[in-house]
């Protein structure tokens, strides 16, 4: 009864592990959750109030009266952020950055095309590409160099069928940040082979150790005609449930993606759009405060994990994830069960330690698990202790 397309798609592992953890919690079990990729902070009050006021004004119809203004703000802020000029008509506002990505891939890719995706990757990229009928081409990142993207490996992946490169920095799941040389290599290869680039910048305000944001456009403004920037309010402003994201890029591509969106979801809700406008134009202290708190948590959880024998941990430079290598423990047995892959490891940690993590397999590697440190310090401390206990059991 199902289409081949539906049969080929795998459900989101992040949502699945979160659902399992919530079920255990509902049963009364004490579970520490490191699974969900969302800030644990509440949406700032001035943003919530803007949504309330929009509803009070009767902003409940299909079109939000401030959408033109919101597109103008997004165009202006993106122009200032990346250093190239955009107009409001080059902006598509979608129901989350994930929705923008999906629309863009459908608008640019088709049967026979190839899309280059650095690995480890956000788990939805390959599935979106397959839904478009295209083929994901995976380029392995160099873990020993902090999950760097080897330029020569990227170049070797290009064929006559290559249409698109997806660049996500800071990265989910690794927290890695591409340096200027890497971004320049992406730009050079894309220009040489007439390729498009999607720059997924959703974690652009979550950078640590004094790093400044950069993407392919900041290092090569000449990439404007072949780059689409994707962003949103979910991570920066703790607005994951509001479902507002956007794409900024060449008008032809934006218009095509908008046409696809018009036959699926239309626009986000007016209240969400009013909140997004308030987020972008209102006080930004909340952004700096959340980023500073994430940095404290990052330093704590990384130091704890690095002290655990057998774990290999690359220090993340952005986002709010850490991606420890657990290959040392794979193949071990516990209570008659052999841990063969990352899913086995995640199940073991949830069942034995009541700690919810996400297996690395859906991100492209069976040697890792992903932990989100978008959790309270109390949860991080308790969760780290439980992880240490679990790994001691496998020693």
How would you describe what is shown here?
The strands form 4 sheets. A 7-stranded mixed β-sheet has the order 2-8-7-6-5-3-4, sandwiched between helices. The chain has helices at 4-8, 13-26, 45-56, 67-82, 97-108, 124-131, 151-157, 180-192, 216-219, 251-262, 270-281, 285-306, 342-353, 377-394, and strands spanning 32-33, 91-94, 114-119, 135-140, 162-168, 196-200, 227-232, 245-248, 321-322, 333-334, 337-338, 355-356, 358-359, 369-372. It is globular, with a radius of gyration of 21 Å. The chain is built from 14 helices and 14 strands. It is 42% helix and 14% strand. With 395 residues, the chain is of the alpha/beta class. It starts with a helix and ends with a helix. It folds into 2 domains: 4-42 and 286-394, Alpha-Beta Complex (Aspartate Aminotransferase, domain 1); 45-281, Type I PLP-dependent aspartate aminotransferase-like (Major domain) (Aspartate Aminotransferase, domain 2). Helix 5 (97-108) runs parallel beside helix 6 (124-131).
């Amino acid at each position: 009864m199902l289409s081949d397309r539906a049969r080929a798609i795998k459900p989101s592992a992040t949502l699945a592990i979160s659902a399992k953890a919530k079920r255990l919690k509902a049963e009364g079990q004490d579970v520490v959750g490191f699974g969900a990729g969302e800030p644990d902070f509440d949406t700032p009050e001035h943003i919530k109030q803007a949504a309330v006021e929009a509803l009070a004004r009767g902003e409940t119809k299909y079109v939000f009266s401030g959408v033109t203004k919101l597109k103008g703000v997004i165009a202006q802020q993106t122009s200032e952020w990346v250093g190239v000029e955009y107009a409001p008509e080059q902006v598509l506002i979608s129901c989350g950055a994930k929705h923008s990505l999906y629309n863009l891939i459908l608008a640019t890719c088709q049967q026979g095309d190839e899309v280059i995706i650095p690995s480890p990757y956000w788990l939805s990229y390959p599935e979106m590409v397959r839904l478009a009928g295209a083929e994901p081409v995976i380029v392995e990142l160099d873990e020993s160099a902090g999950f760097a993207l080897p330029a020569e490996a990227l170049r070797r992946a290009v064929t006559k069928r290559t249409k698109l490169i997806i660049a996500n920095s800071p990265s989910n799941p690794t927290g890695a940040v591409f340096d200027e040389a890497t971004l320049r290599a992406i730009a050079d290869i894309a220009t040489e082979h007439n390729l498009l680039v999607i720059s997924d910048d959703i974690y652009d305000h979550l950078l640590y150790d004094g790093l400044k944001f950069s993407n392919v456009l900041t290092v090569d403004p000449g990439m404007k005609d072949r780059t689409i920037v994707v962003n949103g309010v979910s991570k920066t402003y703790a607005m994951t449930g509001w479902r507002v994201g956007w794409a900024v890029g060449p008008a032809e591509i934006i218009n095509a993606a908008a046409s696809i969106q018009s036959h699926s979801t239309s626009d986000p809700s007016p209240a969400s759009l009013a909140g997004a406008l308030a987020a972008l134009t209102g006080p930004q202290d909340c952004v700096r405060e959340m980023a500073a708190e994430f940095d404290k948590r990052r330093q704590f959880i990384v130091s704890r994990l690095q002290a655990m024998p057998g774990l290999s941990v690359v220090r993340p430079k952005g986002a709010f994830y850490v991606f420890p290598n657990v290959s040392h423990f794979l193949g071990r047995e516990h209570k008659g069960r052999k841990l063969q892959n990352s899913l086995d490891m995640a199940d073991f940690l949830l069942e034995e330690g009541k700690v919810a993590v996400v297996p690395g397999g859906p991100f492209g590697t069976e040697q890792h698990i992903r932990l989100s440190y978008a959790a309270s310090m109390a949860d991080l401390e308790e969760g780290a202790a439980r992880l240490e206990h679990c790994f001691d059991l496998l020693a």
